TrEMBL record:
Cross-referenced NCBIfam families: SSADH (TIGR01780)
Entry protein name: NAD-dependent succinate-semialdehyde dehydrogenase
Name of a matching Pfam family: Aldedh
Organism of origin: Acidovorax lacteus
Keywords of the record: Oxidoreductase
Ranges where the Aldehyde dehydrogenase domain occurs: 21-482
Length: 488
């Protein structure tokens, strides 16, 4: 699939330190999850390279932070224009290494690029404050200054957007970055970095350390332990988030964490049934269920339960599973064998505890790499099932029945996670009551998709710290400095 790129020079396989492509000692393979075929071998960089990238970023910092906001804005805008100009190629690279259907991949390119556009604009609005004085011979000011060298460790499910959502606000604020992309999807990250160079982002301002799973752990330790790195942003599992948080404690590093979710999707009796079915499908089956905001648990009220289950199952039966490069496919492969095993474990556990399979339930072993799972729906799910507690991160929709509004709220909140939540209701009082009662960072009401660049994305409880996107997305990359000027 990569031989069809319009601009083959976007296919980079080395890391990027101080504006130079770095081959490294070893290499690691990147595979196409749809076919299992090797796509490329990529530089397997390690702790010394991470140190070099941090040093390069530190050297680049003074000149980057003293550029005017408008100068940084113009460079970011050029990067955005190049990302969009190469949307097709970036989409192809993404589908090849990540598996999501090509139209969805191109959609992510536009979504990922939109953060660069947004923060190019926000770069010009990092305003300070003047405060009323408490004494007439003083003046009180607040500056917002770049925090310093930033590190970003990113996941494979959004190979571009999870990078730009962190890197664009950092660069806008005047901070250089060291990126450690997911080992399963480094090619999209490197192509984006190549376009950043073409846009004129100076050497050392944006560095990429590619590494396999083992070296990623070692590189992560260096990024966390460094005194020069003042901020770490991570998107990935809660488990790894906890490790990184502990590793950042000795240097009291500022952290942005976007971790696991366990999103509830509640359908009340007064919901618009067709709209709820559409929203449920969009929310569950985007990226074959591999997003942290995908609905994990469907709670449907008794009065509408049978109708919803029937319509939703019919909708899921229309899903087309296959290689993401094939026309009409809307369900690609899962990222790796472990992902398939987890979905199967959740489905089997639900069935063993009394759930009724309506659609799917099995792995499609005869298709491509064998990493495809049938879009699956079960009814009669109960709270003792694994799928009630753990994030499945795959194409499995368990449907639970509930009676009262309070029951739904209690069930939805009975988790240590608090990222996205969704509910369908036409009752204006209920919309406010339930929105306020849900312990989540984001609530979708009568919608199944809610992310965009100018809204604050993030979670509460063990789903993370901080918000990405929107004007709040700059906050983690600036420090507030109070100036008290006397003798006026
Ligand atoms: P996922 O559940 O999305 O696979 P992970 O949390 O395992 O997420 O991985 C997300 C990112 O974190 C990847 O870039 C991966 O290489 C990196 N990573 C995983 N474990 C560690 C670790 N112990 N230290 C640093 N980075 C890690």
């Amino acid at each position: 699939p990569l031989s069809l790129l319009r601009d083959p020079s976007l296919l980079k396989t080395d890391g990027l330190i101080d504006g130079q492509w770095v081959t490294g000692g070893g290499r690691f393979d990147v595979h196409d999850p749809a076919t299992g075929r090797k796509l490329a071998d990529v530089a397997n960089l390690g702790p010394q390279d991470a140190e070099a990238a941090i040093a390069a970023a530190d050297r680049a910092w003074p000149a980057w932070r003293t550029k005017t906001a408008k100068e940084r804005s113009i460079l970011l805008r050029k990067w955005y224009d190049l990302l969009m100009a190469h949307q097709d190629d970036l989409g192809r690279i993404m589908t090849a290494e990540q598996g999501k259907p090509l139209p969805e991949a191109k959609g992510e390119v536009a979504y990922g690029a939109s953060f660069v556009e947004w923060f190019a604009e926000e770069a010009k609005r990092i305003n300070g404050e003047t405060l009323p004085q408490f004494d007439n011979n003083r003046r009180l000011l607040v500056l917002r200054q770049p925090i310093g060298v930033c590190a970003a460790i990113t996941p494979w499910n959004f190979p571009l957007a999870m990078i730009t959502r962190k890197v664009a606000p950092a660069l806008a604020a005047g901070c250089p970055v060291v990126i450690k992309p997911a080992e399963l999807t480094p090619l999209t990250a490197l192509a984006a970095a190549e376009l950043a160079l073409r846009a004129g982002i100076p050497p050392g301002v944006l560095n990429v350390i590619t590494a396999d799973a083992a070296q990623s752990v070692a590189v992560g330790k260096v990024l966390c332990a460094s005194d020069v790195v003042r901020h770490l942003s991570f998107t990935g599992s809660t488990e790894v988030g906890r490790i990184l948080m502990a590793q950042c404690a000795p240097t009291v590093k500022k952290l942005s964490l976007e971790l696991g979710g366990n999103a509830p999707f509640i359908v009340f009796d007064d919901a618009d049934l067709d709209s709820a079915v559409e929203g449920a499908f969009a929310s569950k089956y985007r990226n074959a269920g591999q997003t942290c905001v995908c609905s994990n648990r469907f709670y449907v009220q008794d009065g509408i339960y049978d109708a919803f289950v029937e319509k939703f199952a019919a909708k899921v039966r229309t899903a087309r599973v296959g290689n993401g490069f094939e026309d009409g496919v809307n369900q690609g492969p899962l990222i790796e064998p472990a992902a398939i095993e987890k979905v199967q474990r959740h489905v089997d556990d639900a069935v063993a505890k009394g759930a009724r399979v309506l659609v799917g339930g099995r792995r499609l072993a005869q298709l491509g790499s064998g990493q495809f799972f049938e879009p699956t729906v079960v009814a009669d799910a109960t709270a003792d099932m694994l799928c009630a507690r753990e994030e499945t991160f795959g194409p499995f929709a368990p449907i639970f029945r509930f009676q009262t509004e309070q029951d739904a709220i209690d069930a939805a909140n009975a988790t240590e996670f608090g990222l996205a939540s969704y509910f369908y209701s036409r009752d204006v009082g209920r919309i406010f009551r339930v929105s306020e009662a849900l312990e989540y960072g984001m609530v979708g009401i009568n919608v199944g998709i809610l992310a965009t660049e100018h809204v604050p994305f993030g979670g509460v409880k063990q789903s993370g710290l901080g918000r990405e996107g929107s004007h709040h997305g700059i906050d983690d990359y600036v420090e507030i400095k109070y100036l008290c000027v006397g003798d006026i």
